[in-house]
Amino acid sequence: MHIDEELRERHVLSITVTNEAGILARIAGMFTARGYNIDSLTVADITADHQISRITIVTSGAPRTIDQIMAQLDRLVPVHKVVDLTENGPFVERELALVKVAGTGEHRIEAMRIADIFRAKVVDTTTESFVFEITGPTDKIDTFISLMRELGLVEVGRTGIVGMVRGKA
Amino acid sequence: MAEMSGADILVQCLVDLGVEVVFGYPGGAVLPIYDVLYNHPKIKHVLVRHEQGATHMAEGYARSTGKPGVVLVTSGPGATNAITGITDALMDSIPMVVITGQVATHLIGSDAFQEADTVGLTRHCSKHNYLVKSPARLAHVVHEAFHIATTGRPGPVVIDIPKNVQVATAPFETPDVTNHASYRPQVKAPAADIAAAIEMIAKAERPIFYTGGGVINAGPEASASLRELVELTGAPVTSTLMGLGAFPASSLRWLGMLGMHGTYEANWAMNKADLIVCVGARFDDRVTGRLDAFSPDSKKIHIDIDRSSVNKTVMVDLPVIADAGSALADLVAAWKAAGHKAADLSEWWARIDGWRAVNSLKYPPDTTEIMPQHAIAELFAATRGKDVIITTEVGQHQMWAAQHFHFDEPNKWLTSGGLGTMGYGFPAAIGAQMGNPDSLVICVAGDASVQMNIQELGTAIQYRTPVKLFILNNEYMGMVRQWQELTYESRYSNSYSDSLPDFVKLAQAYGWTGIRIEGPQELEAGIRQMIETPGPVLVDCRVAKLSNCFPMIPSGAAHTEMLLDPSQVSGTMADEAKALV
């Protein structure tokens, strides 16, 4: 007997929650307990009174699984609203990465040139290294990092996705 | 505002919320609360013998009265012992509030004596939970916990209270928690959904109502509305294990329970129906059998208060998110307002009668041994005319009780359905008796599962609860043995109950009356003696050792592949079927 894997599609979920102790464990733990995937997760409070947080989760699964994830999130007591940005229409998603590259000579100049093309900023430098700050959708950052790999990539830090519906509403 | 200690605030809130009884066990981290409960004029504390017993007593109390069950235990082992019952209440949607003591706030995280991360441990087995770090928060949390436990889809809520929060003081004021910022269950169905449902029911040629525990949870009015709707539409009714009693088993419209050990007519009617109206049930794997063969030609309406139950395992055509009682009342009103008459379902009923004629619940007659099904039938017959509440443990005896004891009213059948917790039934019976002092409360148990919380014999004696503990003793973990016979060529690995106690002497040691029934000729008199003897009575009813529970849908099979008797059993099973639960 073999175990089949289901087909997956990527969805970005935006969840507003009461900013209380344990809320992140409650959300993340629900994903683990029910066997759902978390590809990326960000959280920060978003109101002036610090009462509400927004959690952005990138997950993947079959359409029925995504629908279950939405319903399971929605029934948690501190969850105010769950939006599937991927299903909801046009939306913006961004993440930020810090990318450290070490090298001299031609490699160093090439790294600088590519950073310019990607509109990455230099936030730290020595004569033999740069730390770039780059913002954008996940695939842009993936591409930038893979290019830097040939030019002396040392380390990477990424924030994970934040997302928002386009337009007025 | 009066300044009160956390412990005083907690107990005052319990009084204000109408709590009459608390099931609990004291310990270091709840001593301040126990001091407030000392000789308390309004709240009765029931001292259990193990915290798991307290949770199941609270469940039995809740399920039989409709009121939330309340549990009070200490930190660490007190809390971890309660976890099985908390999970059981979550799976079966039982309103329960569990108050756990915790080490003082400055000790949390230091591996202090009897410290456990109770909110962490119970986060995913409770509907919600709280760690209360200030007495000023306590009143709000307690009121909110009861609100959450009892509304929407009911469930267990845990309140973890550090010891210093019980001692420290704060101003006390009764809070209002009805307008919660994020928790707002949808009780009333949209009118368009009700109208659509009515049209589907009116057009159906082969409709069936498939009802569950949600109808019981919605209160007696929901059962009344269900009965009226069935009368108006003329459709047949089946129900899950948890839903027994919402519709009277004595009605001609009743097909019996469905699912793995359901009746032939219920499962075939589900398979051949053109419309399933699911009310307060959740298409559990024990109900559906093989999913791709589940009721292939039907439209499906699913009425449930929990949106996550909809389209979880079976895709439905019309989801109706609502309280079962509210939706059923709306359906009755809308059916009448639309002027619908019951359709002519005589052809459908003729087919159902054909399936009924199979008589799938028949069982062989007693020989020198009592057939366990016969013991349940005798118990049913002997209790007619009395207000009976039946609880069960988990296993063969549970299924036989579901099949052969028939319920006409809700809240009279208490069993662990979702989690399948051995050790549930006996404490649940004590809890049910606390809430229904005048009822005849009988726990139908097996020799194996009754031992999982047998220590509560002491609790029943201490509080003079006249529960009857009716053990079908076959000296096996019967359901495990049955599966081993069906699936593993009768290799009975560890399913024999070796070294059983003498149950009658054990009962007597605790001050109970103990009765042994050894053969068919003693059955009727033994059951009568059990009912007529005042106080708690244990019956060790020796039954046929190797009886199997039929009918049965084998693991991974379709509703139409029911086994009716042992001659159809092969003794082996494919790996795919073995891997299913």
From TrEMBL, chain A:
Keywords: Amino-acid biosynthesis, Branched-chain amino acid biosynthesis, Transferase. Its EC number is 2.2.1.6. Residues 12-87 form the ACT domain. One of its GO terms (biological process) is isoleucine biosynthetic process. InterPro entries: Acetalactate_synth_ssu, Acetolactate_synth/TF_NikR_C, Acetolactate_synth_ssu_C, ACT-like_dom_sf, ACT_dom, AHAS_ACT, AHAS_small-like_ACT. The keyword Manganese does not apply. It is an enzyme of class 2 (transferase). It comes from the Bacteria. It catalyses: 2 pyruvate + H(+) = (2S)-2-acetolactate + CO2. The keyword Amino-acid biosynthesis applies. Pathway: Amino-acid biosynthesis; L-isoleucine biosynthesis; L-isoleucine from 2-oxobutanoate: step 1/4; Amino-acid biosynthesis; L-valine biosynthesis; L-valine from pyruvate: step 1/4. GO terms for cellular component: cytosol. GO terms for molecular function: acetolactate synthase activity; acetolactate synthase regulator activity. Catalyzes the conversion of 2 pyruvate molecules into acetolactate in the first common step of the biosynthetic pathway of the branched-amino acids such as leucine, isoleucine, and valine. Belongs to the acetolactate synthase small subunit family. Dimer of large and small chains. This is Acetolactate synthase small subunit. It comes from Sphingobium jiangsuense.
UniProtKB/TrEMBL annotation, chain B:
It comes from the Bacteria. Binds 1 Mg(2+) ion per subunit. Binds 1 thiamine pyrophosphate per subunit. InterPro entries: Acetolactate_synth_lsu, AHAS_TPP, DHS-like_NAD/FAD-binding_dom, THDP-binding, Thiamin_PyroP_enz_cen_dom, Thiamin_PyroP_enz_TPP-bd_dom, TPP-bd_CS, TPP_enz. Its cofactor is Mg(2+); thiamine diphosphate. PROSITE patterns: TPP_ENZYMES. Keywords: Amino-acid biosynthesis, Branched-chain amino acid biosynthesis, FAD, Flavoprotein, Magnesium, Metal-binding, Thiamine pyrophosphate, Transferase. Residues 394-541 form the Thiamine pyrophosphate enzyme TPP-binding domain. One of its GO terms (cellular component) is acetolactate synthase complex. One of its GO terms (molecular function) is flavin adenine dinucleotide binding. SUPFAM superfamilies: DHS-like NAD/FAD-binding domain, Thiamin diphosphate-binding fold (THDP-binding). Its EC number is 2.2.1.6. Belongs to the TPP enzyme family. NCBIfam families: acolac_lg, PRK09107.1. This is Acetolactate synthase.
